Amino acid sequence: MRKYTLTENLISGALGVAIGLPLAIYGANHRTPPDIVQVEPVIYEEIATYNEEAEAIPEVYIMTEEDIAEEAYYDDLELLAMLVHAEAGNQDMIGRRLVAEVVLNRVDSDDFPDTIHEVIYQPNQFSPVGNGALDRAIPTEGDYEAVRLAIEDRLDRAILYFTGGGYGKYGTPAYQHGDHYFCTE
Predict the structure, then answer these.
(1) pTM
(2) Which residue stretches of the chain have pLDDT < 70?
């Protein structure tokens, strides 16, 4: 086996760095992105606490039907706060509450859908749904507060409709507050 001199080793090393480093940098900057695969969520009915080797496996949170219903309820409340912001973000607290109350009163009515989500997305009911303002709405603490107050104690359980700029063609005119005209059944 031939032994290399110090000079040969240095030259060989320098050539290796001169050739290898640019290739390594090029390779690091030109990788193909990994394929992204969308997966469906898995709902586990049971969880094992330990595997065969008796090693702990990560705890997985299992959502019960009650948990799912509670999460859907809070999602609906957030959606309602978004609608309040889109419809009455420029109104005082009473004006915001009244908008929230229209939705809640409809949920309670036999003439409308049974959930906040279904009431809000019922066709041709709220202009922010149709014009995209609902999707862009970022509710404030005041909007959430209006929803909370409307849930706790409604100011008017009879109002089912509101419009801006005058009374609409549905319902019986009741009163104006801020920019909105409210109507009962």
Answers:
(1) 0.67
(2) 1-58
